[in-house]
Amino acid sequence: MAIQKLFVGPNPCCSSAKNAFHDCFIRGCDGSVLLSSTKKNQAEKDAIPNQTLRGFNVIDAVKSALEKKCPGVVSCSDILALVARDAVLMIGGPHWDVPTGRRDGRVSIANEALFNLPSPFANITVLKQQFSATGLSVKDLAVLSGGHTIGIGHCTLISNRLYNFTGKGDTDPSLDPRYAAQLKKKCKPGNSNTVVEMDPGSFKSFDEDYYTIVAKRRGLFQSDSALLDDAETRDYVRFQSRTQGSTFAQDFGESMVKMGYIGVLTGKQGEIRKRCAVVN
Q1: Which of 9, 131, 245, 249 would be a feasible disulfide site paired with 141, CB 3.0-4.6 Å?
Q2: Would you say 44 is a known binding-site residue?
Q3: How far apart are CA 245 and CA 10, in angstroms?
Q4: Annotated binding residue at 104?
Q5: Where, by residue number, does substrate bind (predicted)?
Q6: Within a domain: 273
């Protein structure tokens, strides 16, 4: 299958990598983010932090093709990990070997995603705690944050940073004032539809520019700026910015492999779904 043909619509490659991240942080890498809600249960997919996820059609198309060739063999969670890798590769990112053998979970709860996914508003203390809870290191936090080199963010997520950071009509002082002024031109108060690039100028290519932007205090989200509030993450940001991302590609692949081991189901745990949006 020529997977490139499946990537249509806005930022599908960015979404595919983001989908894997959002899956693994909730119940582990078990494909629970792919399950659709039912009358009795609101699934992760419909939680507020996941409502901008895209590319589920790509997963479904790959799954359908595989089920015709080798039914009941390849899990949706493995497909999610493989598609994320291929999507990053398609936009200039690194290749990494994806360990397979995961099985699919049967549970998906929206509130778990709402309260447990790393937030764009999080400070460095919270981010470090959340990554540590999944077995990821502080370096992994700095590396995987670099995934923001691709993609977009909605104005609603930065409105408080721009217009009411402490409840007094002020702007976040950690944000470069000139960049804040640029953002205010795009994101007017109450604007909920407009999107801005997370890595202005190269948001569709996988590169190290994200770290240069963060080092200049131009990270879009509070969680981006937070990387400058810890010695280890700050050193990583400055190193990648100074060396044109000399180790970023390799580091990213290694951290993605490590993330892919979070809470995996194997053996007789879970199932191999026939369709990724519903349990068997």
Answers
A1: 131
A2: yes
A3: 26
A4: no
A5: 118
A6: no
Dihedral angle of Cα 236, 238, 243, 249, to the nearest 10 degrees: 40
pLDDT per residue rounded down to tens, the chain (280 residues): 444 544 544 455 557 888 999 999 999 999 999 999 999 999 999 998 898 888 898 899 999 999 999 999 999 999 999 999 998 988 889 999 999 999 999 999 999 999 999 999 999 999 999 999 999 999 999 999 999 888 788 899 999 999 999 999 999 999 999 999 999 999 999 887 888 888 777 667 788 999 999 999 999 999 999 999 999 999 999 999 999 999 999 999 999 999 999 999 999 999 999 999 999 9
Torsion of CA 160, 164, 167, 168, to 10 degrees: 170
170: annotated binding-site residue?
no
Q: What span, in angstroms and rounded, lies between the C-alpha atoms of 45 and 61?
A: 18
- 239 lies in a domain? yes
Please check whether residue 184 lies inside any domain of the structure.
yes
Which domain does 213 fall in, by range? 124-255
Active site residues: 22
